[in-house]
Amino acid sequence: MKSLSESKIFIVDDTETYIDLLVEALEGFYDIMLAINGVNHLNIIAPLTLSTLIQKDK
């Protein structure tokens, strides 16, 4: 089992404030990847394997 620091988390949001808050809270615990929209997200994530997906939206 991976430790948290070896785990990746992918943050996708078009609101910079939400991204900043999440990065501040999670940096140091996870390898953080970012995208500012769904298209960028799909281009980056396509070759990766996910174990968990958490979606936040209005």
List unreliable stretches of 5+ residues: none
Termini separation: 33 Å
Backbone shape: globular
C-alpha Rg (nearest Å):
12 Å
- Share of residues in strands: 15-25%
Largest sheet: number of strands, sense, barrel closure: 2 strands, parallel
Overall tally of domains: 1
Which structural class best describes the helix and strand composition?
alpha+beta
Count of extended strands = 2
Tell me the layout of helices and strands.
Layout: E1 8-12, H1 16-26, E2 31-35, H2 38-45
Parallel strand pairs: 1-2
Q: Could you characterize what this model shows?
A:
The protein is α+β, with helices and mostly antiparallel strands and 58 residues long. It has one domain (4-45). The protein contains two helices and two strands. It has helices at residues 16-26, 38-45, and strands spanning 8-12, 31-35. It has a two-stranded parallel ribbon with strand order 1-2. Strand 1 (8-12), helix 1 and strand 2 (31-35) form a beta-alpha-beta unit. The mean pLDDT is 78.
Summarize the structure.
This protein has one domain (about 5-45). Helix content is about 35%, strand content about 15%. The protein has two helices and two strands.
Task: Name its key features.
58 residues; alpha+beta; two-stranded parallel ribbon; 2 helices; globular
